[in-house]
Amino acid sequence: xxxxxxxxxxxxxxxxxxxxxxxxxxxxxxxxxxxxxxxxxxxxxxxxxxxxxxxxxxxxxxxxxxxxxxxxxxxxxxxxxxxxxxxxxxxxxxxxxxxxxxxxxxxxxxxxxxxxxxxxxxxxxxxxxxxxxxxxxxxxxxxxxxxxxxxxxxxxxxxxxxxxxxxxxxxxxxxxxxxxxxxxxxxxxxxxxxxxxxxxx
Length: 201
Hints:
This protein is mostly helical and 201 residues long. It has nine helices and no strands. The protein has helices spanning 3-24, 31-38, 42-49, 52-75, 81-92, 100-112, 116-142, 151-171, 178-193.
């Protein structure tokens, strides 16, 4: 197997693992389940990941990195901070229903309580989200778009609100309407950044 084909096989296994985890949950996913879904031997799964814990933590990281790659592209663009903020909020705020992305995040947080390897991965990825939002807020303060004495604190509070609402929307379907969630996030973010809420519409 060439290095390139090994990389492709690894990415394919991670993608399949994400689908299996989204369906079965991290706690109920076995390496045999991933191998069967991918149409490969369990030995090949262990060749790439060595342990079930490594497979689960890398699959979780793979899924989250797909989302974060889009945010990194946005941060590197020449878009104004206010437009970047609106795009991040549209992307991060739960869209309703049981999204695979939010299902994996919530499941990952729960399993991180018992898995040091998964806790390390989820902490790193969670911090990247907060750092990205902090960067956008700080840029907006610099160019005068936002009024915020503590961009880092504001980013943590905004994301904490979104995370909490995402749990409600994902775990308790139809308890809170998507439109209501988006409105609460918009109002809270506007207060944090000294904006008219209409600027985030």
